Amino acid sequence: MNIQIDGAAVEVVRSYLLAAAQEMKATLVRTAFNPVIYEVLDFGISMYDRNLDLTAEAPGLTMFLGANDYSVRKVVEYLGIDTFEDGDIVISNYPYWNAAHTYDASLIAPVFVPGFDGPFGFLCVRAHWADLGAKDPGYVLDSTDMHQEGIVFPGTKIYKRGKPDNEIIEIIRFNSRMPEIVVGDFNAMVASLRTGERRLQEIEAKFGRDTVDTAIAAILDHGEKTTARALANLPRGSWSAEDIIDDDGISDDSITMKATLTITDDAFTVDFTGSAGTQKGPVNMPFGSTLAMCKVVFKALTTPEMPSNAGHSRALNVIAEPGNLFHAVYPAPTFTLWTGIVGLELLFKALAQAMPEKFSASSGGDVPGFMMLGIHPDTGKFFALSNNDPVGWGASPAHDGANALLHLSESIVRNTPLEVLETNTTMFFERYELRQDSGGPGKHRGGLGLRRDIRFLSDGEFMTVMKKTKSRPWALAGGLEPDANTVIAFPGTDKEMRMSTKRIPVKAGERITVMTAGGGGHGVPHDRDPSLIAEDLRDGFISETAARRDYGRN
């Protein structure tokens, strides 16, 4: 039953819900075993009402929030809402329902309150797990079907009435190359869910069910109306853009992606018709991941400063037919989800045609990721630890791009600290600096990428994940494109080679150089303020050669 409450009461309930989500986040970060969770923040935390509408969130990785929305609905649909009991926790990592690859496991829990028949709400915590028994350790670059990508749970009760199913937990333990870390992270996620469960029960007890229900309805209604007002101020029409990703991990053939965005009075539609079909290798996007990517773009365009709720995405429509690159169907492999990173910038590229005053040039075009795997000489244990490196952000119509930030798809996610990488692997970083001349020239210069030189202290494996090395990040309004992300293995030796998405053996004493892309330039370079060129020279951001070649400086 809805009752009349004022706006102040709505705000109080909303703040309590957001605080509960933030406390769930704090619990996860403080108890997780894997640096990818507690340092990098590779997770997403969401709260839902009993209608499975998002009410509050604690962001980590941007796209996980929209992915959680899809996953919760699919799991509840699969199990049936009447099968949930107090204390249950469900695990899901089936990529086509869980909207991610198999190592991004979701734990979903119902929340029950006294006197209410059925779940009062649901909670979801998603985080990247270190290993679930895929065909290769660390990361899978060349799988050809889902069953090579690790053990799969469609929506399986791993806690029943508050008690863990130790047989299922043991299956996970014995199917992982890093069982202590994986089970530790599982327990951290359970603790996060239990924190959220207590807090949501306390909110219901403090304010009463009718007040909470009415406040949530008002929160979602406000989200929808605020989005509608922002949508009304956008131009009407359709705009398309195309790009490529390097390959699918099996062949060297480039893969076409295309998106058409249409804005009408009451809808924002993204259509991926014209993109390539299902690929043999693991670059296919689960449809839930595609929805999440589009939610990020729509939210950034309409209500970027507000915490997300279900009302903010009601005007969004996404079209990708089953079998499209952006709608994977069983048993298509999906592990290397860099398609969505390049795809996010593809959507911005299309929108820049409609609203050139609002959009920056490409920000590095991709996320340059790398990982080392091996046996640590100090512990004798297997390790696999990754890092996603910063790139230069694209220049805007008003200012230069920022230097060396994580790609805009990553939100508040961080790179793995150098100290953590050196302590937990046998990589030693001999150089870590901004990459001179890496920003795309323009009236406003693209931000700089970085360079790091790595020397290996023991034998192991090294892998890179990048999907935009064959084409450069795009520029706008006459600006110039920067060099793409580049990784050079064994520089200066007869083994020297360039890497994009690849796994190679390395020996103690060998080296790798990682050079990340800058941002695209905006505006004609010769229109740049000479004082800014001089400042860039003083700072070492550009060389004298680049100043003469790109900016016409004498």
Characterization of this structure:
The chain is α+β, with helices and mostly antiparallel strands and 554 residues long. The chain folds into two domains: 7-224, no CATH class; 360-554, no CATH class. Helix content is 31%, strand content 21%. The chain has twelve helices and 20 strands. It has helices spanning 7-31, 35-38, 62-79, 95-98, 166-174, 179-207, 209-232, 287-302, 339-354, 418-424, 530-539, 544-551; strands at residues 43-49, 54-58, 89-92, 104-111, 121-128, 156-160, 163-164, 237-245, 255-263, 268-271, 316-319, 369-375, 382-388, 427-434, 450-456, 460-465, 486-489, 497-499, 502-506, 511-515. Strands 2-1-5-4-3-6-7 form a seven-stranded antiparallel sheet, with helices on both faces. A five-stranded antiparallel sheet has the order 14-15-20-17-18. Strands 8-9-10-11 form a four-stranded mixed sheet, with helices on one face. A hairpin with a 6-residue loop joins strand 12 and strand 13. Helix 1 (7-31) packs antiparallel against helix 6, helix 5 runs antiparallel to helix 6 (179-207) and helix 6 (179-207) packs across helix 7 (209-232). The longest helix is centred in the middle third of the chain and has 29 residues, at 179-207. It is globular. The chain starts with 6 loop residues before the first helix and ends with a helix. The mean pLDDT is 96.
